[in-house]
Amino acid sequence: MSACNDYGLKIHDDIALVSLALSPTWPDYKNCSGVNELLHNVGALAVDTLVAHTPKNERGTPSQRRVHMLEGKWNPGKTMRHRH
């Protein structure tokens, strides 16, 4: 945000600022527009995946890659204009 100020740009008026990896631990989280990745869900999925491999005595890198997709949550914030 400070880089925008250095160029005389006002966030929301002159430029939109959107994060694709927001975290509620950020000091200005509620004001930032973007996607909250819901990292607690990512951690829970990682633990579930590891626990599922334990009874089968599976170790190391799986022979076939698996992709897990978790949906984030949009945080409207105040750093972009909202369409009505």
From TrEMBL:
Region (Disordered): 55-84
Protein name: Uncharacterized protein
